[in-house]
Amino acid sequence: MTDTALIPDPDLVNALRALSNPMRLQMLRWLREPERHFPMEAAIADPAEVGVCVSHIQAKAGLAQSTVSAYMAELQRAGLVRATRVGKWTHYKRDEQRIAGLVAELGRTL
């Protein structure tokens, strides 16, 4: 007989997997306070409303654009960020409601 309470929530496992990479975790931290970590005068959209342009994340991280895009896609698949297109640029913003839900689930699981 299997106890389903012992089977971890797949969404939680995906989020933990995404956060296991130190740079992805750092990017998520930066996005918590975009006005502090990214140049607001260079923004083409409101970072509080739309998010931070991937090119700004790439410049701060000092990584190749393809690497940053892959990292952000992993965070998006885990439900930790939302992506919005503004023209040809993709902007990323933390999904605070989803993050809070995952933190609560982690607390219940552990």
TrEMBL record:
Residue ranges constituting the HTH arsR-type domain according to the UniProt record: 4-110
Superkingdom, taxonomy of origin: Bacteria
CDD domains: HTH_ARSR
Keywords of this entry: DNA-binding, Transcription, Transcription regulation
SMART domains, per the entry: HTH_ARSR (SM00418)
PROSITE patterns: HTH_ARSR_2
InterPro entries hit by this protein: ArsR-like_HTH, HTH_ArsR_DNA-bd_dom, HTH_MetalResp_TranReg, WH-like_DNA-bd_sf, WH_DNA-bd_sf
Keyword Transcription: yes
Protein name: ArsR/SmtB family transcription factor
Organism: Streptomyces cinerochromogenes
Species lineage: Bacteria, Bacillati, Actinomycetota, Actinomycetes, Kitasatosporales
